[in-house]
Structure formats: C-alpha cells, structure tokens
Predict the structure of LuxR C-terminal-related transcriptional regulator.
Amino acid sequence: MGVRLLVVDDHRLLAEALASALKLRGHRVLAAAAPAVGAADLVISRAPEVCLLGTAAPAEPGAFDPVVKIKRERPQVAVVVLGPVPSPRGIAAAFAAGASGYVRHDERIEGVERAIMKARAGEAAVAPQLLQGAFGELLNPAAQPDDEGQRLLQMLTPREVEVLVRVAEGEDTRLIAAGMGIAPSTARTHVQRVLMKLGVGSRLEAAALAARTGLLDRAGPLD
C-alpha cells in the first residue's frame, strides 16, 4: 500500500525528481516543494503520513526547526530527514527535534523508500552504517584543530575581528585607522583590547595565534 507523502527540499529539482520516483513506486505524493523553510506550514495544511525533508546543512542552527513545528502541530506525521552525512550531533539533533529517520542524500531510491515505510510504521529509520559512523566518531572523535579558533573568534566583536585581520596583514596603527575610517587613538584601543582578549602580549603573538588556530580563515577576507 502506498504512503501519502510530502517531499520538501531547498532544491526544487531534487524535490520533484524524488517525488516522481516515489510516484512510480506507487506512493501518493501530495506535493513536491521548495524551499524547505516552508515545510512545516505545508505539512500542517496537507497532513501527509510521512514528510521527506531535505536539508543541505544539518549542522546549521535552526536546521530542524521545521521538524519541531511539524511534530508540535501534527504529531502523527512522521518526518524523515534527507541530507548529507552529518556529525553525530547532527543525527542526534534531527531525532531530538522529532524526526523518525535520517537518510543520506545520495541513498538509492530503494533505501529512501525503506526509510519511509519504517517511519510510517513508527520505527526509527536510520541506516546501520550511519549509526556505526556516528558511534565511531563519538568513541574516537576526530581532532578539531579549529575549535580554539572558533572559541577565540566568538570572544571578539566584529570590529575587533577586522582589527585582528589587519594586524595579521602587517598593518600598523596608522594604516588600521585609515582603513577603518577611525582615529589612530581608537585603532590603538581596539588593538589593545584584541591583545587582552587573546591573552597575548604583542601584535606578532596575536597574528601567530590567529594563524595557528585557524581564526583568520573563519574571519574571512576584508572587503
């Protein structure tokens, strides 16, 4: 027996292609829509049995907000997330939001269909290899050399980040002030605050720390 489905993805072509493939397999697709941010309202109004929700960035904040809303308004609807292989936290976040399954975006249609059927039956639909990978990473976490850079970046204001980038590029106080359109005394104050927040004693140390931790890569180039 076919499943009443709603397919939503940020990429309309992908949503429509997936919908067509599922229709050929005997399922009733109520809609194939984009972008995914409107998924919750569409699901609430159409009330499918299963919503296949595509996401390109499962690690982004708020990626699974539509799932939370769907489960709050239509708890009987099973949501299967279709996306890239995330970190263990990404898989956990999907299920914490209320998803019934997580399927790789490059899964064959047979695998997607199996996940849909399991979700409709009230079962958790996650490929064993995804779970194995998640547990493997949790037990043996990969080194994250840029964690410190992210932490340091969050300590700085946007203006201080710009000052740090300019310091790393070798600009002196006068050039920093001219480039940012501020007084040299203000530029000097910003530099001192950056040094203090980073816990270093010189501009050279600040530049070296920023380069070593990947902070400069996260900050991006100056406009």
